[in-house]
Amino acid sequence: MTEQASDVLVDLVRVFCGPDGRHGNTLGVVRDGAAVRGEAARLRLAAELGYSETVFVDDDERGVIDIWTPSVRLPFAGHPCVGAAWLLDLPELVVAAGVVAARQDGEFTWIAARAEWAPGRTLRQYASPAEVEALDVPPAGEWIYAWAWEDEAAGRVRARAFPGRGDGIVEDEATGAAALCLTASLGRALNITQGVGSQILTAPGPSGLIEVGGRVALA
User: Which residues contact 108 (CB under 8 A, 6 or more apart)?
Assistant: First the structure.
């Protein structure tokens, strides 16, 4: 699906869809990044679109992308990288934080990144999934990833994400960067159900890299 905003065509995909193909976090991808030049213009378009992240493709052969929320530029973010890798069908992406390897494995698209590329997230554990599901949106100011074990032995987690940026995105449906941070903290592979029903898979890899994967579909 495409959307037109400020005379720019934007591809829309849902990243980290659930097993039934629903849910996932909507991502806007501007394939013609040259059509939106400068930080101010990109910030305006990202704010106009209102998605948690919008990607501007600056080189579709090398996979150079620029990631924006409605309020800030991000050096790295998980669901934009997974969505862009699927849409552009590339083996790697180049973001401000570094090079992100990507691969396709059946219905899943995977990226490999480092937890230190996603600082500033508070991981807050709760005693049960019911407590996580009952949470109210906290006040803006702190980026909170609320989580609880659904099945610790199986690595199954229930999570919700509250960016706290004050830019209108009070809760993220699916956040690969936060899942990556939780995986680094726990040191094990995870199967995360986040938001209404999105699914994020993670796996620690060699040399400090962590893989994050999920299903992607056109919005």
Answer: 201, 213, 214, 215
* All residues at 6 or more sequence positions from 114 whose CB lies less than 8 Å from its CB, including other chains: 97, 98, 208, 209, 210
136 contacts: CB under 8 Å, gap ≥ 6: none
Question: Which 8-state DSSP code applies to residue 91?
Answer: S
CB atoms within 10 A of CB 97: 17
Q: Return the CA Rg of the chain.
A: 16
Half-sphere exposure at residue 69, Cβ-oriented, CA atoms within 13 angstroms: 21
What interhelical angle do 78-88 and 176-186 show, nearest 10?
120
Asked if 214 and 182 sit in the same domain, the reply is yes
Q: Which two tokens stand for residue 162?
A: 């509250």
What is the extent of the structural domain holding 163? Answer: 116-218
Number of domains in the chain: 2
Question: Any idea what DSSP says for residue 3?
Answer: E
Distance CA 179, CA 203 (A): 10
Instruction: Read off the tokens for 57.
Output: 């493709």
Is there a contact between 89 and 11 (Cβ–Cβ < 8 Å)?
A: no
66 and 124 share one domain: no
* Chain segment 192-217, per-residue pLDDT in tens: 999 999 999 999 999 999 999 999 99
pLDDT tens, position by position, 105-151? 999 999 999 999 998 899 999 999 999 999 999 998 999 999 999 99
Q: Are residues 129 and 162 in the same domain?
A: yes
